[in-house]
Amino acid sequence: MTRMKYTVSVAMSPLDQLIEIAKTAEELGFDNIALPDSIFYMEKQSEAYPYTADGSRMWDENTPWVDPLILAGAMGAVTSKLRFYTNVMKLGSRNPLLLARQVGSVANLTNNRFGFGVGIGWAPEEFEWCGVPFAKRGKRVDEMIDVIKLVLGGGMVEFHGEFYDFDRLQMSPAPSEPVPFYVGGHTDVALKRAVRIGDGWTSAMMTCDQLAETIGKLKKMLAEAGRGDDPFEYQAVCIDKFGVDGHRDLVAAGVTDWIGMPWVFEGLGFDAPVEQKKDALKRFAETYIHSGWQD
C-alpha cells in the first residue's frame, strides 16, 4: 500500500505562530505545510465564493494572511526535511516572469522542498485592481504556467504567445530539480489542466465519495494522455472521513496526501494559542503518523 502523506494547512493562523507550527510539524513527522493565498479582502464581493454553500467568505477583513512564497522561504530556513506547497496560489492577477523569479528563489533556498500549487482565482476585484482583466482568465493562466515552467527549466529562453511575449532571457540559477506543479479546481477544465501540466491535483473541501469519483476521472484522463504510469499526487481536503478507518477509506479512494488542521478537528479555532495547536499536532501524529496503521 502506498503511504498517504500528511500535510498541515496553516490558513488563517496568526502570523506569529507560523514558524513554530512548521518546526513542530517537522519534529512530529508531518510531510508538508500547505500555504494559503489571499491578496486582500474587498469590502464588497461581486462574485460568490465558490467553496461555500451560500457563496460567502470564511474570513473577514481582519483575518491574517501572509504571502505564501515569502512564508515558504521563512519556514524553509528553520527546517531541513519538511516540504511546502502553495494551496493554491491564484495566478490570474499576477505576472508570470515575476512569479518565475520568486518560485525559483524559493526552490533554491529550500533545497528543492517546494511545490507550486496553482489555480486561477475567483474574484474579479483581485484581477482588475491588480491591473489584469478578468476576461479570458483561464487561457491566460494556461499561458502563464507555460511561461513559468519554461523559465524555471533554465537556459536562455523566449516566448511568444497571445498574452505574454518576450525575447531571449535567462534567470539564474535555475532550480537543480524540476519544481512540481499541483493544479487546483474541480471543473473539467481544471482537471484537463492538471493532466496537461500537473504533477498532481489539489481538492477544495469534498466528501470521500466526491474525491473517489474525481480521482477516478483523473486516472482515466491521465491514461488516455499516455501519463498513466507517471507519479501523480492527489491532495485532498476531506470533510466526512475521520479516524484511522476513515483514513483507510481515503487511501482506498486514491488520496495520496491528506490536508487539514488537526486543531480544528479538536474544536479549536484558527486563532487558538500556539501551544494548544502544537498539542493537537502531537496527538494527531500519534494517531495517524506513528501508529503504524499504514505499515
Question: Would you kindly provide a written description of the structure presented here, covering whatever features stand out?
Answer:
The protein starts with a strand and ends in a 6-residue tail after the last helix. By secondary structure, the chain is an alpha/beta fold. It contains ten helices and eleven strands. The protein has helices at residues 18-28, 68-76, 96-109, 124-128, 137-152, 188-197, 208-224, 243-253, 262-265, 274-289, and strands at residues 5-9, 32-35, 83-86, 89-90, 114-119, 157-160, 165-169, 181-184, 200-206, 233-238, 257-260.
Taking all Cα atoms into account, the compactness measure Rg is: 19 Å
Strand order of the largest sheet: 1-2-3-5-8-9-10-11
**N/C terminus separation:** 8 Å
**Model regions low in confidence, pLDDT < 50 over at least 5 residues:** none
Order of helices and strands: EHEHEEHEHHEEEHEHEHEHH
Overall average residue pLDDT: 97
Helical fraction equals 25-40%
What is the makeup of the main sheet? 8 strands, parallel, barrel
Number of helical regions: 10
Please name the defining characteristics of this protein.
295 residues; alpha/beta; eight-stranded parallel beta barrel; two-stranded antiparallel ribbon; 11 strands; globular; Lucif-like_OxRdtase_Rv2161c; LLM class F420-dependent oxidoreductase; SsuD_RutA_monooxygenase; Luciferase-like_dom; alkanesulfonate monooxygenase activity
